[in-house]
Amino acid sequence: MPWKATNVSEQRFQFVLQASRRERTLIELCREFGISRQTGYLWWKRFQQDGLAGVQEHSRRPHHSPDRVAVEVVNAVVELRRRRPDWGAQKLHRLLRDQHADLPSISISTLHRILNREGLLEDGDRHRRALERFERSRPNELWQMDFKGPQGFNRGIGPLSILDDHSRYVVLLKQVGNTQLKAVRDAMQEAFTHAGLPETLLIDHGTPWWNGASSTGWTELTVWILRQGIRIAFSGFRHPQTQGKVERMHGVLQRASRKRQRNFEDQHWLDEFRHEYNHLRPHQALGMQTPASRWQPSARRFQPDPPDWNYTADIEPFRLSNQGQLRWAGQRWEISRALRHQLVGVQRVHNRVLVYFCNAVVRELDLSAGRSLPARLASTR
Length: 381
Fold this sequence. Notes:
By secondary structure, this protein is an alpha+beta fold. The protein is built from 10 helices and 12 strands. It has a 5-stranded mixed β-sheet with strand order 3-2-1-4-5, sandwiched between helices. Strands 6-9-10-11-12 form a 5-stranded antiparallel β-sheet, with helices on one face. A hairpin with a 2-residue loop joins strand 9 and strand 10. It starts with 7 loop residues before the first helix and ends with a strand.
């Protein structure tokens, strides 16, 4: 499978999870994932030793910096920034090269780190710049979901939005009034009914789909989504740019609301805006096409009462207790209260056990240490 512009750790999770099933050799998997044999064997060795935590992406920062930037270069960068405080790293880099050709050359990213280390960056300068802009290759491969933030002090939450990553088509724009489970689930069910189901849903760490007090972060709504066979991807903490497309749509909505003197509580106007955004407004990132011209409903249909997940032959099913615990190998393991009475799958890999719920790994049991460890929402396929 080709590498996508996604989290590196997710790709490593996918590799070791597929390797653990032993349906293909490590050499075949390395070829499929586009990595060297050395890298593949290294990931597999780390997984055997440390479980899923071992294949997380580690910092590549060296313990020692023999090539640390010369003091003269740092001083020159600081002086240029103070003379032109509104210039960014790219412009300052060009100026440094033109005015200080006698100094050792540095990269733009190094110059940016100097500004950061010297306290010469404002909050607006610290946002990570995207290395590349990307979109999913087809409609309904990924939907982004978020609430429009409240406008002003003591104002209610804005509408709930769902947007298709490939086409920018706004699947849902609804003022639900609050972030409570029932209201959000009813709105999502409305979207799933008329538009079908996405393969993956990208959401942030917010209510009601995330519970910070839970060891897994899962909620009743998370479980409801997963039972439809939808993968869940959580954005980075305090990184709204991860959901950049829905955030940009919210910016357009905000400007339209202000200039047309309309408010987010008016569902009739929200419906008009959604129609205009999807069918009339040309989108620059789409080559001036409309989102509707690139979107179509998903063939995957919503099931009001989905059956239990059908796990593969190498994954043994178990029903959790009313406290979300698993009784296995003569021991009681804490899994997740959000999964009480749900059917999970257990797969043993050496001295570790992976616990699945539907197509996601929810816990990792370390048999040698007798510990139950949380695992990210890593899909099995």
